[in-house]
Amino acid sequence: MGRRKIEIKRIENNEARHVTFSKRRTGLFKKLGELCIHCGAEAAALVYSPGGKLHIFAHPDEALVFDRFLSAPPGPAAVMPFASPPERESALRASCAELQAVLDAEKAGRRWWEETSLDGLGAERLRRLRGSVSELRQAVAARAEMARTGVALEAASAGTSAPPDAWADFFDAGHGDTLQLPSGF
Predict the structure, then answer these.
(1) Quick check: pTM over 0.85?
(2) Which residues pair with residue 43 across a beta bridge?
(3) Which one of 49, 121, 159, 162 has the lowest number of neighbouring Cβ atoms within 10 Å?
(4) Angle (deg, nearest 10), helices 164-172 and 123-149
């Protein structure tokens, strides 16, 4: 008989709905796996059954894909699937203009952080920026100390941090004061 086009609507029969969910979930995960294998993509899918059970597919590894997603900076790509076409176009144009400005600045020998103005940032955003700069400063100091003392840098990339006394020694030696923040921080 071949394939037939089915009407997209809720299946009223509870048993038929459960069977359809199971088959379609399996098909979805199979296609996603094929996409990952053929194209080298990293993907994850979360599906809740009508009964509330969570089903997860992830390739190559669930934690790796979710960590990558959670650490990605928010941007137009994150909201595009839910935006209307004019909103998507606007977001893409804004992203393109921002990237072009960064490229132009780097070609001219300037860096984006030299171009960034703190004017207009609210108090809360400035506090968060200060915290981020502080965390970055500590991370750089820890890396520098590990390099100086010969501690394996592989340990740092594996997620371990330098012991607190290494940071203290680094800052006590006066190296931690090389990063100057704008007044008011």
Answers:
(1) no
(2) 59
(3) 159
(4) 90
